[in-house]
Design the sequence.
């Protein structure tokens, strides 16, 4: 259990598409890195060193600053047994903790159900971005999914309160005929009105917010700012989720320019998020998980990299014990998994650590088993 006096909050940032682990935490001290990356390579003199073997991508200066301050845990070699190179299958495994079958509940949906079993708060979980991630889907668990907080809300053009409530009631009846027509429709019918209520409440958050932190104009910056706005509004949200633009980290071609842009935006957004919370004395109870569904192949393909296996994830927060966790996967030919980095830390160990040591929950039924926990909390 954390020692924080406030209820702990988890924020998840998904790097959709499969982030290239080797060009994120760069093994610049290993000559095999340069042998395998004749084209898609970060020059040694540009790496932001962690030690004499590995360092951050030069576009990650803001996260490197947080690492140097002791607030970033780098979990190396994260993955799962018999990794899939399919975006959809690998993401499904990360979202449901079901490597052997197609899961029907998201791990964070289970978390929300544990945190708020009687559904007293329709904003226990909020997603920023298009659609609803599988991680948050569970029967009877309402989740508000927001595209842009500044323009979000249902029927907000109707000024009269009574008229708005009547309009919302009529709108909610759209869900009623769906009852009893399968689990997906039952889910929509059960949670539809709750999601509408959440929309109405969330639309007030930006009006309560002021900050000297200036976020970038990209989607990730907007979403991280929206998360801070909602956190500061005091709605009792315990789980936030957002995704870098869909499959943007799927860098099969033109990787050097694209990866640089992506990490410039993402690193700035993460640091702005952290600094914004600090400015408002609101960071003590917030932990950020940054993950991707898989890494990329060890050898480049000319101008990019193809789907691989073992990657890295990041845990960021005021209460995080920063540093390196796990081992950087070997680049030796005989230690590769069909040309991929081997994983050495099961992602469910990361989840279990967050759930048990941060959120104060029993991790086993959520991640479907018992996994070794790490020391970043």
Sequence:
């Amino acid at each position: 259990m954390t020692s924080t006096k406030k209820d702990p909050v988890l924020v998840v940032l998904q790097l959709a598409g499969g982030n290239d682990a080797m060009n994120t935490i760069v093994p610049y001290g290993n000559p095999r890195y340069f042998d395998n990356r004749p084209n898609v390579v970060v020059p040694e003199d540009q790496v932001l060193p962690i030690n004499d073997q590995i360092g951050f991508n030069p576009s990650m200066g803001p996260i490197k600053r947080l690492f140097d301050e002791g607030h970033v845990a780098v979990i190396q070699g994260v993955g799962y047994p018999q990794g899939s190179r399919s975006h959809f299958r690998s993401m499904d495994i990360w979202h449901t903790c079901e490597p052997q079958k197609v899961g029907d509940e998201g791990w964070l949906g289970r978390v929300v159900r544990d945190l708020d079993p009687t559904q007293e708060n329709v904003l226990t979980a909020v997603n920023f971005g298009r659609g609803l991630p599988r991680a948050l889907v569970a029967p009877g668990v309402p989740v508000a999914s927001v595209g842009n907080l500044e323009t979000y809300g249902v029927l907000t053009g109707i000024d009269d309160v009574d008229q708005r409530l009547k309009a919302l009631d009529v709108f909610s009846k759209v869900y009623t005929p769906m009852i009893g027509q399968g689990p997906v429709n039952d889910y929509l019918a059960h949670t539809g009105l709750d999601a509408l209520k959440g929309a109405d409440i969330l639309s007030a958050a930006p009006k309560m917010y002021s900050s000297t932190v200036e976020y970038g104009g990209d989607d990730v910056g907007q979403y991280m700012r929206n998360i801070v706005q909602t956190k500061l509004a005091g709605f009792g949200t315990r789980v936030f989720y957002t995704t870098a633009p869909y499959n943007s980290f799927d860098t099969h071609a033109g990787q050097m320019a694209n990866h640089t842009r992506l990490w410039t935006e993402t690193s700035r957004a993460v640091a702005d998020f952290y600094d914004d919370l600090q400015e408002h004395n609101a960071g003590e109870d917030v932990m950020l998980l940054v993950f991707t569904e898989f890494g990329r192949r060890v050898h480049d393909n000319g101008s990019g990299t193809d789907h691989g296996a073992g990657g890295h994830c990041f845990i960021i927060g005021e209460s995080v014990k920063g540093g390196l966790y796990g081992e950087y996967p070997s680049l030796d030919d005989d230690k590769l998994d069909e040309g991929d980095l081997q994983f050495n830390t099961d992602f469910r160990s990361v989840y279990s650590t967050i759930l048990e040591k941060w959120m104060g929950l029993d991790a086993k039924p959520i991640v479907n088993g018992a996994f070794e926990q790490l020391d970043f909390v």
Observations:
- The mean pLDDT is 88.
- The domain at 9-152+203-367 is CATH 3.40.720.10 (Alkaline Phosphatase, subunit A).
- The longest strand covers residues 72-79.
- DSSP finds ten helices and twelve strands in the chain.
